[in-house]
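Quick question: who can interpret this fold?

. . .
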Amino acid sequence: MSYDDLLTNTCTIRRYTEGAQDAYGNPSQTWADLHVDEPCRESYPTNREIKVGAQVVIYDIQLFLGNIDVTERDQVILNSRTYEILSASPRRGEDSVHHMELKLRTAK
């Protein structure tokens, strides 16, 4: 079984980008889809603390993806819920990045 076979869910990665103009004609920022129907795998570990800056926070979901462009400034839509990315960590294989591991918290 390959790693790709383990990615049994799909999600959408969204990036904050300049979009339409606001009421004053200035460009406003909005979320735009970056990766749609991206194969992923969700996990719900029991130890869910992560250090973000100087704070320790609780994350809701651990998400595994292929080697794609994703950062802590993006959002994830999974099972019709929006999550903020607390951590986006590349996991290396023998000589290159193999996959991404994200720690997610439900967006407010």
